[in-house]
Design a protein that fits this description.
By secondary structure, the protein is mainly alpha-helical. It has one domain: Serine Threonine Protein Phosphatase 5, Tetratricopeptide repeat (Alpha Horseshoe), CATH 1.25.40. It is built from six helices and two strands, in the order ββαααααα. Strands 1-2 form a two-stranded antiparallel sheet. A hairpin with a 6-residue loop joins strand 1 and strand 2. The longest helix is centred in the last third of the chain and has 28 residues. The relative contact order is 0.10.
């Protein structure tokens, strides 16, 4: 889900999960930031400062206002995974896939979480979907390149 903002990625230590985040200095146009984006950015800043509990609460409040904000679901999935709350992480990873069914990254994360939790069949299904999306994107790029 690319918006009109520059989306960056941060790799967590000791975790294969990546979650996108906004930072004010990375916004393409700071004047265009919506209050919900600012709240998201503040929650991520809380996590980075070591206050993961407050970050989670802020993200949950954000989702109460905007339940389809996939970046918040993605971040909660990563944070819950780090806290070894895998069922909650899976719940938010599934929401990312529901909100943006073309997000191959969302399915990859869901697959890894399900595998970590012993849900092999669900993990394989999510990985197959991620691979289908990856292949479709590759074919689309290949076709577009042939037209140029």
């Amino acid at each position: 889900m690319l918006q009109k903002f520059l989306v960056c990625g941060k790799i967590f230590h000791n975790s294969p999960f990546v979650f996108p985040y906004f930072t004010f200095h990375n916004a393409l146009n700071m004047a265009e930031l919506e209050p919900i984006d600012i709240l998201y950015d503040e929650a991520i800043a809380k996590h980075r400062s070591g206050d993961t509990g407050t970050a989670i609460e802020m993200l949950r409040q954000l989702l109460a206002q905007s339940p389809n904000y996939s970046l918040a679901h993605n971040a909660l999935s990563a944070l819950y995974s780090r806290l070894e709350k895998i069922d909650q992480a899976i719940e938010h990873a599934k929401r990312v896939c529901e909100i943006d069914p073309d997000d191959m990254f969302g399915y990859t994360v869901l697959s890894m979480l399900c595998l970590k939790n012993g849900r092999r069949e669900e993990a394989e299904e999510a990985l197959m979907k991620a691979n289908q999306l990856r292949q479709a994107a590759w074919l689309k790029n290949l076709k577009e390149g042939a037209r140029d």
